[in-house]
UniProtKB/TrEMBL annotation:
Domain called Aldehyde dehydrogenase: residue spans: 27-235
Recorded GO MF terms: oxidoreductase activity
Organism classification: Bacteria, Bacillati, Actinomycetota, Actinomycetes, Micrococcales
Record key words, sorted: Oxidoreductase
InterPro entries hit by this protein: Ald_DH/histidinol_DH (IPR016161), Ald_DH_N (IPR016162), Aldehyde_DH_dom (IPR015590)
Name listed for the protein in its UniProt record: Aldehyde dehydrogenase
Organism the protein comes from: Subtercola lobariae
Matching Pfam families: Aldedh
């Protein structure tokens, strides 16, 4: 006797939990050949606001953790991704229509990228900070600190690597993240959230929304409790309107310049999510 398949319900990931959209909306996710794959939650303005609240609540604990500890947590994500490698390969094959070998290469790249960024967690301060030469009996030190809550529009043409490339560098610096996943390819993003919730990442540090970036991005850009907006995957959106909305709250905006691959692994992707604090300290005259 045949049995019914247990179909997966894809939800949002907010505050370490998996709520449905408060609006009750879903949308169909189709394969590369147009076949039905799943229903994904379509996040609303309220969902975006809830995600920002969760990110703000988690910021203090995450930003105060040592760089070494954050590196361990990020490395743990890579370990769990490795253990669920086959699942992610299957999802990418179905969603993107690529070969199993190409999907495996994407998953491996995502895992390697987590490890690459994890390695910088306890090192970037030494590279980005410095002791400044000053005249007088003072120490003058510049130290990078996290910007705060970062809203990210993930690359829309990548199931997994684009999302990892957008989220990981912000986490390295101690920021918390609200990310809008690829609208067309959201399934790996929700599966990644299942990895996050079973890892050591505190609830609220990463919040993943699925749905329409065009609908959600304006609410994040105008939110007074968001400190930075990353438009790495917002190529098809109205950047000018988003930047004007962000300017109302003095929000920092990061946008790829001249078509450059801003999702490529780079220390600059880490330091752009930091603010520099300069401290003066009197030298002992003894």
């Amino acid at each position: 006797m045949s049995r019914l398949a247990v179909l997966k319900t894809y939800k949002l990931y907010i505050g370490g939990k998996f709520p449905r959209s408060e609006s009750g909306r879903v949308y169909e996710v189709l394969s590369a050949s147009g076949d039905f794959l799943a229903n994904a939650a379509k996040a609303s303005r309220k969902d975006a606001r809830d995600a920002v609240v969760a990110a703000r609540s988690a910021l203090s604990g995450w930003s105060k953790a040592t760089g070494y500890n954050r590196g361990q947590v990020l490395y743990r994500i890579a370990e769990l991704l490795e253990g669920r490698r086959a699942q992610f390969i299957d999802e990418i094959v179905s969603a993107e229509g690529v070969s199993a070998a190409a999907a495996a290469a994407q998953v491996d790249e995502a895992i390697d990228r987590w490890i690459w960024y994890a390695g910088w967690a306890d090192k970037y301060v030494q590279v980005a900070g410095n002791a400044n030469a000053v005249s007088g009996p003072f120490f003058n030190l510049s130290v990078p600190e996290p910007t705060g809550v970062v809203a990210v529009i993930a690359p829309q043409d990548s199931s997994l690597v684009g999302l990892v490339s957008a989220v990981a560098p912000a986490l390295v610096a101690g920021n918390t993240v609200v990310v809008v996943a690829s609208e067309r390819l959201p399934l790996s993003a929700i599966s990644l959230s299942e990895v996050l919730v079973t890892s050591d990442v505190p609830g609220g540090v990463v919040n993943i929304l699925t749905g329409s970036p065009a609908e959600i991005a304006p609410w994040l850009a105008s939110h007074a409790d968001v400190n930075a907006l990353d438009l790495v995957g917002a190529g098809s959106l109205d950047w000018v309107s988003l930047q004007i909305a962000a300017a109302e709250t003095l929000m920092r905006v990061f946008a790829p310049e001249n078509g450059a691959d801003a999702a490529a692994p780079s220390l600059a992707r880490v330091t752009q999510f930091t603010e520099t604090k300069t401290v003066w300290h009197t030298k002992s005259l003894l």
